Amino acid sequence: MKHFGTLFQLGLKRRSKDFFVLFYNIIFPTIIIVLLGYLTSKLYSADFTSYHYYTIVIIPFCSLMGIITVSYAAQEEKRFKTAYRYMTAPISKGELVMAKFLSCVIIFALCSIVTLSISKMLFNMEFNGKFLWIVLLLVCESVAVTGIGLFLGLACKRFDILQNFLNLPIVIFGFLGGVFFPVNSFQPVLSAIINLSPLTWVNRGIVSCIFDNNLQILWVVSVGFLLIGCIAIGLTIKFFKREAFI
Fold first, then answer.
1. What is the per-residue pLDDT across 124-169, written as a single tens digit (0 to 9) for each?
2. Sign of the CA dihedral running 225, 134, 39, 186
3. pLDDT in tens, 209-234
4. CA distance from start to end of the chain
């Protein structure tokens, strides 16, 4: 793993200077929270405002959208024209993939934490002492998002086709998870469909943690994200071929 440190530092520098990453994970969600919060401000109470609601649902949604960003970042060697260097360099697949994985996880997690902190200050949002638990959930989500994004970008042979459809399932998950407006139903079939969205459980976990002092859902979702991320990164290392950079 002697090359890991160099690759890891390079990945951190690239991600931390990537305007696309910073904009869509800090500036964009903050703007959306402000706009939607303002437009629906009269529909919520003084204790739980519209800004509080959209803080809870928008940040995990934008984090999930990071799958698209990571999948493109996974193939940045094409853009920087360094593909042939990686193909001939004595770097193992594990070093290459894990350097990308950890650098992306750190930057995406930090972006979510910064956005959450901004919302906390702007909207006087109280987390009832559960702020760090919410941070833990967002970090675990970043692990899953990065793992899936790298798998799509490095190990999926049909990424050129999938890239045209990646937005669709994420938007559907967002709609079912109540990102744009609260969604709920007592109708069994519709309720089951709503429960298919991971964002539904993320949002429930956060609400249950803050207002019910119940960490069960948050823990289950966090562990689930970690398992998904580990499985995805394992599959990426197994199926990744350097030719994917060309």
1. 888 888 999 999 999 999 999 999 999 988 877 766 666 667 788 8
2. positive
3. 998 888 999 999 999 999 999 999 99
4. 24
Query: What does the pLDDT look like over 67-82, one tens digit per residue?
Result: 988 888 877 766 666 6
Spatial separation of the C-alpha atoms in residues 120 and 125, rounded to whole Å: 5
- Whether residue 191 has pLDDT greater than 90: no
CA distance linking residue 157 with residue 239, whole number of Å: 10
Angstrom distances, CA of residue 239 to CA of 69, 157, 183: 20, 10, 38
Higher-confidence residue of 89 and 129: namely 129
DSSP the chain: -TTHHHHHHHHHHHHHT-HHHHIIIIIHHHHHHHHHHHHTGGGS-SSS-HHHHHHHHHHHHHHHTHHHHHHHHTTHHHHHT-HHHHHHSS--HHHHHHHHHHHHHHHHHHHHHHHHHHHHHHTT---TT-HHHHHHHHHHHHHHHHHHHHIIIII-TTHHHHTTTTHHHHHHHHHHTTSSS----SSHHHHHHHTT-HHHHHHHHHHHHHHS---HHHHHHHHHHHHHHHHHHHHHHHH--GGGG-
* Closest by Cα among 134, 117, 144 to 63: 144
